[in-house]
Design a protein that fits this description.
Chain lengths: 529, 152
């Protein structure tokens, strides 16, 4: 892992010092912690003493992505335009903006094409002359506008380099109409029939009112993001930020200012951050999930369910006599595993406990045979799919809990005499749960594609099991109802449990992530001590 | 908004120009006192199967005319690859090639040119376009019959 693949903090303050001073910057800290899977593995101790090295080393690290708001996006695009202006010695910002948009904001390509044949490039881009506007000739006395058919003083007219001159109100009406039509307006040309000369930003600024111009400028920014492979809108619904990432094959998630953490390459709200899987694996998995969805639905509907109440049944041993156990939430129905018929219809006449002669004629057999072929492979797949889904759902629940954490907080504050700083552990716990669930979810994708008999698999499953077990434990502790806490002592005890498990699962998460990143071979010994 | 008044002023001028200099091959009038609804007639061009036909066209002119093109519809039935059976017309001039400099009269000139020279590569009626390409005589025959029957 190279230095540039890691990130620094915004201010280098260690989060534990923040905790001690009761400083409220914990949320920022959590954001930052979200990002640093790699070096956080240094933090293996359960105690509060952190090396100051950690914060120092963070300061020297470069983040390889940047969250941009509208203003920053604007300056990014301006910076790019300025660079091209300098390199090509063009002094019109508007002209360079048109050229850049013409080549999808690809600076290198623009410079190359411009060097090669600037006249052709400019003509193709719709600016045959770099002098983008034609001033009114001093000899012009009268002017008759071909759009409104009115006569006007020449001073109230405007023409692009093609000298197709119209009055200012007509230009305004024309551009308002174009901008009203949407993002395509940035390709608007001169209003003359068949004229291909492009309208530039400076002209729009001059010819329409400010709010309309701002709409136009936003469309230019939109094209800056849409056409630029290094900048993408954050996929979270309603988010206004965009993210710039210079490294193409970045593996680690990026974290938007809205709090959403996701893979920059996939840029998908549903997929989010898919650590530890590579993007290609997620693609394959999702494709498989959609290919298999019918089979999976069939399997879920037809196997290992009580024929009466549909609750899941575990079959132990070879006996065909099944009972849907009431203490496991079932209905108590007794039935035959093979034919799914009531056990009361069975006995020595039907073949006893280990066989069933009703089976051959039953619909159950037909169903089983239909499933048999697909079954073996499918069952293996479903094992992973089930767990993938259940962690995905658990993550949604954890997300819900995170949003409702302040309610729990209020409950605590009203029931016990504690400071609000004493409830911070709740937020930390839900954040940790979210992280763990997300990694666990994708760990089952990773596991599905891992070589079935490899050495790596052993370690992988070992780490995964640890993480899963402790995450479930943290969930259980976290979900404890406040009503069950009888006194302050009980609260403190519970708080310690949750806090402790937050730390423990963080350690297991780090171990897991580090193990996968390290190729699942070198870590086993250090894991065991 | 100054746009609707631009539209009215320009339509007023166009209409007066047309009244001042009548054209033999077409006529146009405003429907009632609504400047945004016109009725036009175009005489079928000589040498085309539409010759001597009188074709009525309804023009619907948007509020942001001339920045947006008028919409037109043949109300006379016509057998033509670029004119749909409901009378709507397919022409680039009325979509991406529109220029606010163009006038109603320019639109009608284009329509008349389309009667002289159909554009079967960009059709609204695929069957008619196919016939136009492969069996011109049959096309001409039907077009003439329709002209005689409907475009009196
Ligand atoms: Zn004008
Ligand atoms: Zn022009
Ligand atoms: Zn966001
Ligand atoms: Zn990805
Ligand atoms: Zn049951
Ligand atoms: Zn049975």
């Amino acid at each position: 892992m190279s230095e540039d693949e890691m990130y620094d903090t915004y201010d280098g303050v260690d989060d534990d010092s923040a905790e001690e001073s009761g400083n409220e910057s914990q949320l920022d800290m959590d954001d930052e912690e979200d990002m640093d899977y790699e070096y956080s593995t240094q933090e293996v101790d359960y105690d509060d003493i952190h090396s100051s090295n950690r914060s120092n080393s963070k300061l020297t690290r470069q983040r390889s992505f940047e969250v941009l708001d509208k203003g920053e996006l604007q300056s990014e695009s301006k910076k790019l335009i300025k660079e091209v202006m300098d390199v090509l010695s063009i002094n019109s910002e508007s002209a360079v903006s048109i050229l850049l948009r013409h080549l999808k904001w690809n600076k290198e390509k623009l410079i190359e094409k411009y060097m090669d044949n600037s006249d052709k490039l400019c003509a193709d881009a719709g600016i045959p002359s770099l002098k983008l506007e034609k001033p009114v000739s001093t000899t012009m006395q009268k002017f008759s506008c071909l759009i409104c058919l009115d006569e006007l003083p020449p001073s109230q007219t405007f023409a692009l380099s093609c000298d197709h001159r119209y009055c200012l109100p007509c230009w305004k009406g024309y551009l308002e109409c174009k901008i009203g039509e949407g993002p395509e307006c940035i390709l608007a040309t001169c209003p003359a029939p068949k004229c291909k000369v492009r309208v530039h930003e400076e002209a729009v600024k001059k010819l329409v009112e400010t709010p309309t111009y701002e709409k136009y400028a936003n469309f230019i920014l939109k094209s800056f993001v849409d056409d630029n492979p290094q900048v993408k809108w954050c996929p979270a619904p309603g988010c206004i930020y965009s993210v710039r990432c210079d490294r193409k094959e970045r593996k680690e998630a990026v974290t938007c200012k809205c709090g959403f953490q996701y893979c920059f390459n996939c840029n998908d709200f549903e997929i989010g951050d898919h650590m530890p899987c590579p993007c290609s694996q997620v693609d394959r998995w999702l494709q498989k999930a959609s290919d298999e969805s019918e089979n999976v639905t069939w399997m879920l509907a037809n196997t290992k369910k009580c024929p009466e109440c549909r609750s899941p049944i575990e079959k132990n041993g070879g006996c065909m006599h099944m009972t849907c156990r009431k203490n496991a939430g079932g209905c108590g129905f007794e039935f035959c595993w093979l034919c799914r018929g009531a056990w009361s219809d069975h006995g020595s006449a039907t073949g006893g406990y280990y066989n069933c002669n009703k089976y051959d004629k039953s619909k159950a057999k037909e169903d089983d045979e239909k499933a048999a072929d697909a079954k073996t492979e499918l069952e293996a797949y479903m094992f992973y799919y089930h767990r993938y889904e259940s962690h995905k759902n658990a993550m949604k629940i954890a997300d819900e809990q995170r949003r409702n954490a302040h309610q729990k907080e209020q409950q605590i504050l009203s029931k016990f005499d504690v400071r609000s700083a004493d409830t911070k552990f709740l937020m930390e716990a839900t954040e940790q749960l979210l992280r763990n669930r997300r990694v666990l979810q994708y760990s089952y994708v990773y596991g599905y594609y891992l070589d079935k008999k490899s050495q790596e698999r052993n370690l992988f499953e070992y780490l995964q099991e640890d993480l899963e077990k402790h995450t479930n434990q943290l969930s259980t502790y976290y979900e404890l109802s406040i009503d069950k806490l009888e006194d302050y002592q009980a609260f403190i005890k519970w708080k310690e449990q949750v806090t402790n498990y937050t730390r423990i699962t963080k350690k297991f998460l780090d171990n897991f992530v580090e193990g996968v990143a390290g190729g699942l071979t070198t870590q086993l010994s250090s894991k065991n001590n | 908004m100054s746009v609707p008044s631009t539209a009215s002023r320009r339509l007023q001028k166009e209409y007066q120009d047309l009244l001042k200099t009548p054209q033999g091959w077409m006529s146009a009038s405003v429907v009632g006192d609504n400047l945004h609804k016109w009725k036009a007639t175009v005489i079928g061009p000589e040498g085309s199967p539409f010759e001597k036909g009188t074709f009525e066209i309804d023009l619907d002119i948007p509020n942001d005319y001339p920045f947006k093109p008028p919409a037109l519809k043949f109300t006379t039935k016509i057998y033509h690859p670029n004119i749909k059976s409901d009378g709507s017309v397919c022409s680039e001039l009325l979509s991406q090639n529109w220029s606010p400099q163009l006038k109603i009269q320019d639109v009608l000139v284009t329509i008349r040119a389309l009667l002289t020279e159909p554009n079967p590569d960009n059709p609204l009626e695929a069957d008619i376009a196919q016939q136009f390409k492969t069996d011109r005589n049959a096309f001409n025959k039907t077009a003439k019959e329709w002209t005689k029957k409907y475009a009196k």
